[in-house]
Amino acid sequence: MSPARVTIPQSIDGSPPCNGLHMNGQDSLVQPLLTDFYQITMCYAYWKTGTHNEPAVFDVFFRKNPFHGEFTVFAGLEDCLRFVENFKFSQSDIEYVKKILPENAEPAFYEYLETLDGSHLTIEAVREGSVVFPKVPLITIYGPLAMCQLLETSFLNLVNYASLVATNAARFRQASGAKLSLLEFGLRRAQGPNGGLTASKYCYIGGFDGTSNVLAGKLFGIPDTAKTMDLFQASIEKRTWLLDQMAWGVVQSEVSDGELTAFVAYAIAFPDSFLALIDTYDVLRSGVVNFVATIMSLNEQKHEINAFGVGTHLVTCQKQPALGCVYKLVAQSAQPKIKLSQDVTKITIPGKKKCYRIFGKNGSAILDLMMLEEEPEPKPNEQILCRHPFEQNNQTAQCLLERRLRHFVRIIVVI
Amino acid sequence: MSPARVTIPQSIDGSPPCNGLHMNGQDSLVQPLLTDFYQITMCYAYWKTGTHNEPAVFDVFFRKNPFHGEFTVFAGLEDCLRFVENFKFSQSDIEYVKKILPENAEPAFYEYLETLDGSHLTIEAVREGSVVFPKVPLITIYGPLAMCQLLETSFLNLVNYASLVATNAARFRQASGAKLSLLEFGLRRAQGPNGGLTASKYCYIGGFDGTSNVLAGKLFGIPDTAKTMDLFQASIEKRTWLLDQMAWGVVQSEVSDGELTAFVAYAIAFPDSFLALIDTYDVLRSGVVNFVATIMSLNEQKHEINAFGVGTHLVTCQKQPALGCVYKLVAQSAQPKIKLSQDVTKITIPGKKKCYRIFGKNGSAILDLMMLEEEPEPKPNEQILCRHPFEQNNQTAQCLLERRLRHFVRIIVVI
């Protein structure tokens, strides 16, 4: 199979693609059977009714920003593309599907499954790492109905958590400002090994500077970072020698000797990258005192505090542990398709769409404009009438578009 | 390397080991570098001070049951053992470690790293799937100090989420009773591909009956299950034919025709395993009506409702997305080690311990008794004085032990 032709237009902010990440370590578990069984029964139903090759369009989007926030950072695209590039049922996959489908399923269906790959798909997507908003398609998949259907669960799995944790990281970055170094320390509490690796990768995309996860450093080129040793005090007993090396301005009886010893030992070993865990004994009565004492000594040598590590809350996204991305049919055989629901937020926006991010005269983004493919492009310095698709009190807005109108950046992948 | 000798004593309840799971699909990402960088610097510090081969004992335990609950289901052991069996730094791992350690690190350290494997470790553990409680060691690792240290992050990663989600599943099972079939449907919202697979596996251990995740079915032998199609209504347009096949007792104008059609189509295809998603249009005004109508027809054919699927809340453990297992040094060179803290819950219980689950005369468990290795075993029909290690109002309890005293079941692994 020839490699995917990927066109990556320049990003909105001109940054290099994907923060220089290279992805050579995708999980071997990302394979066609990493899906819900119902996708396979759907595929069978399409095949049985002869609709499996009808041209279809599916949108991936979410309905609400996570964490009661106002934005989402889109991530997971690279994993989706790699999955599609390598999509092929193995012989043992087919054998397994035979076991779980009803016995009376037609044998020709399995021959059909064997032929499937990503070669008839076209995928358009917002650029990885973009700031995105509800309802706007993040990924649009064009291709044969059944093949598109088989991607649903895997795409959602790959996009949902990646975008959630990248957004969480971006919020930490927003709160801390641009100057501090933020380090991801969540591996031990992450949701499984891949949960940990995914967190390291997408926290980096979301604005973190490094990770404690060595494998993430090796696979993705994310800077690794040392964490200090809350255990050192129990295992190094020759500490008096170390204490003699430096002069301390705190009363030793107030604070833990062992903790101080550990900090000092670590500071001597890594004076340029000193990091401390201050909650081993007592944060305020011991940890902070020892930490400040150590830092003061380091400052005399022209070092300064410039990094913080974040663990469990970052990687598990405690405040909201799942993003609700969905994957919906929006057109079939050139007919727009809509999902109706009494719950207005669950109604889908039908048809093949194109999206523009509209910038105001001062250069900041005003809104994302979604149009049907056949509608004329919006033009700078012309008035357009925009309509919010669902909110009553937000139905119209007149926008004077200026010369700086730019297309919402999209990646076009043809394989 | 010879395979691990694993002795699995009979379980407390006499059930077969590990629910018949076989684990032939461990994530290729579970390797020695899936760790925090600080473990490698600790290892270097031990090696540098010549303490790396001192015999050490580490306990894995947690401090508080999750979900404000009263129990935890221990899981993840099999993954830990497989990790230890295969533990070996590759040449490219060593090269990567050279890059991230300071340049002045001694070259002999890398030769030492190359020699490391699990052959000098002994691991004792509570049996996978056991109900366990705070402070009691779940896994105890005996071996050279530095080698034990290198397992910390990986063990915590493998145990924390597995135990959390198994416990969550057990709580769903407790709420639903023993008869219903419970199915895990969380793949699309799980925290990454492995998060999804881990959830499928450990929800099964926690008491679920199956999963929608096909790969989990293939790898672990967990029963796969079909989910119905909330999308079928948009893609099948020959529905009038289907409606004619059955007589319905509901007024069609009240409910969605499309939804009913989808349910019926699915029920005809899979009359023995019909499952419905009822929130596509409106749960009470459409979904339930159509569902009941379909079920009534199926009931006439002697089918009944006996299964429920649970997704996002189950796999992400929304109520508490991380379990706080820790990995602490409790003895070094035959000396007990304690971690002191102003926060009494953070103090570790020092020394090599043995644990017994004490059963009362009526056959139900009373408490888990932790003793130092050298203390005499408790005996049935003798009084013992038990002391709660931390809680003031729970310090003593006199227990008359009956003949049915049995050892807390442990797995002994020697590799």
Automatic annotation (TrEMBL), chains A, B:
CDD domains: NAPRTase_A (cd01570)
UniProtKB keywords: Ligase, Phosphoprotein, Pyridine nucleotide biosynthesis, Transferase
InterPro entries: Aldolase_TIM (IPR013785), NAPRTase_C (IPR041619), NAPRTase_N (IPR040727), Nic_PRibTrfase-Fam (IPR007229), Nic_PRibTrfase_pncB (IPR006405), Nicotinate_pribotase-like_C (IPR036068)
Residue intervals of the Nicotinate phosphoribosyltransferase C-terminal domain: 352-396
Metal-binding recorded as keyword: no
Top-level taxon in the UniProt lineage: Eukaryota
Catalytic function, reaction form: 5-phospho-alpha-D-ribose 1-diphosphate + nicotinate + ATP + H2O = nicotinate beta-D-ribonucleotide + ADP + phosphate + diphosphate
GO molecular function, one term: transferase activity
Pfam families: NAPRTase_C, NAPRTase_N
Gene3D superfamilies the UniProt entry points to: Aldolase class I, nicotinate phosphoribosyltransferase
Any one biological process term the GO annotation gives: NAD+ biosynthetic process via the salvage pathway
Enzyme Commission numbers on file: 6.3.4.21
An example Gene Ontology CC term for this record: cytosol
Keyword Phosphoprotein included in the entry's annotation: yes
Record-annotated Nicotinate phosphoribosyltransferase N-terminal domain positions: 33-160
Pathway where this protein functions: Cofactor biosynthesis; NAD(+) biosynthesis; nicotinate D-ribonucleotide from nicotinate: step 1/1
Post-translational modification: Transiently phosphorylated on a His residue during the reaction cycle. Phosphorylation strongly increases the affinity for substrates and increases the rate of nicotinate D-ribonucleotide production. Dephosphorylation regenerates the low-affinity form of the enzyme, leading to product release.
Family: Belongs to the NAPRTase family.
Role, per record: Catalyzes the first step in the biosynthesis of NAD from nicotinic acid, the ATP-dependent synthesis of beta-nicotinate D-ribonucleotide from nicotinate and 5-phospho-D-ribose 1-phosphate. Helps prevent cellular oxidative stress via its role in NAD biosynthesis.
Alphabetical list of NCBIfam families matching this protein: NAPRTase_put
Name of the protein this chain belongs to: Nicotinate phosphoribosyltransferase
Organism per entry: Caenorhabditis latens
